[in-house]
Design goal:
Elements: H1 2-16, H2 23-42, H3 53-69, H4 73-96, H5 100-125, H6 155-174, H7 180-199, H8 203-222, H9 229-248, H10 252-256, H11 268-284, H12 295-298, H13 317-325, H14 329-347, H15 353-372, H16 382-393
Helix pairs in contact: 1-2, 1-5, 1-16, 2-4, 3-4, 3-14, 4-16, 5-6, 5-7, 6-7, 6-8, 6-15, 6-16, 7-9, 8-9, 8-15, 11-13, 14-15
Length: 408
């Protein structure tokens, strides 16, 4: 049980420690993952084989070659260690989250963490921050008077965690028969998380969450044996109307029309300039990139002159990781996503309502962060990358021989 508790602890710990961006936080994560791995090994538990074995092997080979070729070895080594941490956490999750109760507990932990982060964000928004630990005077931040970031430094990263949690709340609401009190509680949590997401003023977060919700609706409506299609349409229509109402009460129009605002860290012009510089970096390091976790060290050589801010991230995870590991990252990524979603859709054919619901929620959560990654760097933030990894592992959990089958 120790590895399972460690996984749940990491889900909560990482976001609450500034997104685990500080070295001390990532070191604690690595130690806890190592302890969980050793515990599983000593208990003679086998790390399960999954359809992801080949894609993960390809990722490891690619990153190892990039590391060997990197001119920034110390930073590339840090990147390799974090990659190994995420991969180990992925397999630990599959190995130790086996029972139906454990699956429910992990999903509840993800939702609870989202609620805690949202509460912190709302309190900070109204100058009621309970702990100075979540005040970051050393970081220059914009929109601090109008947006929320919770325990994170960047509001987009709070949005990143919320957009992974919201699909699970919706799934809990619509895929099982529950008491009226439970449904009202889940409805309140959903609206609370969506409201907080709106307050982040993260355009990427809004688009990603909407994409995830539409994905959920499309998949559920496409299920031939799903008997509540009219209910689903009604619920999603209600969610849409309520979401629009929430957004209309915030400075959304102003936020959308400030795509070309003067803030050098958060305007479309600045990001396009960064993307152009990153593409130039990729062209000059086409085969193996500059090494994992080396973007901040390598990019200045390709930064377009006249830009006042030195970028540490490409604000596009796909360009960022391609710049670090080379052009072969693209086919490896496509192969990995193909295996993931193929397995997910296969799981939807099961008669287990819980397995079907958790799989669908996990796919929607992963889709949301993948969409957001076109304009931000959530997967470079340890807390969100770790949550991404653990949620992805839920799609590959083995079926219990003794689990009760519930036909929807």
């Amino acid at each position: 049980m120790i590895p399972f508790y460690i996984i749940c602890t990491l889900i909560i710990f990482a976001p609450l420690t500034r997104g685990a961006v500080n070295p001390w936080a990532t070191t604690i994560i690595q130690i806890l993952v190592l302890i969980a791995a050793i515990t599983l090994t000593l208990s003679k538990s086998k790390f399960p084989k999954t359809p992801m074995t080949k894609p993960i092997t390809a990722i490891l080979i690619l990153c190892t070659a990039s590391f060997i070729n990197s001119p920034h070895k110390p930073f590339a080594l840090e990147g390799m260690l974090m990659l190994l941490t995420y991969i180990t956490a992925f397999y630990i999750t599959i190995a130790c989250v086996r029972t139906r109760q454990q699956q429910r507990t992990l999903v509840t932990t993800i939702i609870t963490t989202a609620v805690i982060l949202s509460t912190i964000g709302i309190l900070k928004r109204f100058d009621l921050n309970p702990f100075s630990f979540w005040t970051y005077p050393d970081i220059a931040q914009t929109h601090t008077s109008t947006s929320v970031s919770g325990a994170y430094v960047n509001r987009n990263h709070l949005a990143g965690f919320l957009e992974m949690a919201i699909p699970f709340v919706i799934i809990l609401f619509i895929t099982r028969q529950r008491s009226l009190e439970t449904k009202l509680g889940l409805l309140f949590i959903t609206l609370f998380l969506i409201t907080t997401l709106a307050f982040t003023l993260s355009r990427g977060g809004w688009i990603s969450t909407l994409t995830a919700i539409l994905f959920l609706a499309a998949v559920l409506l496409a299920q031939k044996n799903f008997a509540h299609k009219k209910t689903i349409l009604t619920i999603f229509a209600a969610f849409t109307i309520i979401t629009i109402f929430i957004l209309s009460s915030l400075p959304v129009v102003e936020r959308i029309t400030t795509l070309t605002q003067q803030d050098p860290m958060d305007n479309i012009e600045g990001r396009i300039r960064c993307w152009k510089g990153t593409i130039a970096q990729i062209k000059d390091n086409l085969a193996l990139g500059t090494g994992p976790n080396t973007f901040a060290q390598a990019y200045p050589a390709w930064q377009i002159p006249g830009h006042a801010v030195l970028r540490r991230y490409a604000h596009n995870d796909y360009l960022h990781f391609t710049a670090e590991t080379g052009i072969f990252f693209i086919p490896v990524l496509i192969y990995t996503l193909f295996v993931f979603f193929r397995t997910g859709f296969q799981n939807l054919n099961t008669q287990s309502r819980q397995k079907k619901g958790i799989t669908l929620g996990a796919m929607a959560a992963i889709l949301a962060i993948l969409v957001h990654s076109f304009s931000d760097f959530n997967l470079n933030i340890p807390a969100n990358a770790l949550a991404f990894t653990i949620i992805a592992a839920l799609v590959f959990h083995p079926s219990e021989q003794s689990e009760k089958i519930c036909v929807p």
